[in-house]
Amino acid sequence: MGIYAVTGSASGMGYETARRLQADGHTVIGVDIKDADIVADLSTPHGREHAADGVLAASGGRLDGAVLAAGLGPAPGRERLRQIGEVNFFGVVEPLVAWRPALAAAESAKVVVVASNSATTVPLVPRRAVKAFLAHDAGKAMRSVRPFGPAAPTMMYAASKIALSRWVRRHAVLPEWAGAGVRLNALAPGAIMTPLLQEQLATPRQAKAVRSFPVPLGGFGEARHMAEWMCFMLSESAEFLCGSVVFVDGGTDAHFRADDWPKAPPARGLPAYLRKFRRSRSV
Ligand code: NAD
Fold first, then answer.
1. Which InterPro entries does the UniProt record give (predicted)?
2. Dist CA 48 CA 52 (whole Å)
3. Which ligand 1 atom sits closest to the C-alpha of 88?
4. What is the pLDDT of residues 176-198, one digit of tens each?
């Protein structure tokens, strides 16, 4: 049986995943702003440090896996704008970096980061905001989305999740992660019925946006199903999964981007027998 850190363990997907892991006999170290083994505010550097240190102390320096599910949805207000970026991006990345040696110590650890299909389905997200997150500049990310006015929280949310997905894919393949046996992947849910979505549905503007979003399968997903996906991504079956962003969103990502994927990488360093095809049109 393993030891798992779960952020956002007090509610929604994090809660369901923690419950399922415990039911399977694992030890869970829950992190949340309330009702958790380690109560920490992931929207501040101090809170993130407290969460990181607390998990390391409670796990004895060895983690079989981690689920990073703490997050905040788009809602109005200047302070909320800051919190969205701090919790959704830095509240994932900073604890994870601190836990990496403990994950590597388990030899075949698995990590699931909860991203979102908003990373590929929200239009006009400013590139500057995403770059700012990846450069660890929270202030610049905020300044980049503020001109969007009432749409700023949606832009902040999407930018934080784009940056998070990219961070996962960039790091998953590195010697420090894949090379150390740590499987780092992301789950990208669509609209899932949790308190986060309920908060959005309670705001007329957000509710309209959520309800008008195309979902080919219709309706909303369930937190317990996301928990099952995450437990699968933490299981031995996911031994060969690395840097994947798994969309479980009722078909919205496929609806908007059927032909965006797959795409081949740029043609660099081609072997001689392929060079003559360089000028032909390719995917
Ligand atoms: P939720 O509100 O039920 O759970 C989120 C948890 O994060 C809560 O327990 C909350 O207390 C915790 N949290 C928030 N701010 C915190 C802070 N400052 N410090 C510590 N903990 C904090 O929501 P959920 O839907 O289960 O969300 C889980 C993840 O899924 C989030 O990252 C969210 O962005 C993502 N997501 C949700 C949906 C959806 O439709 N529900 C869709 C895509 C992605």
1. NAD(P)-bd_dom_sf, SDR_fam
2. 6
3. 32
4. 999 999 999 999 999 999 999 99
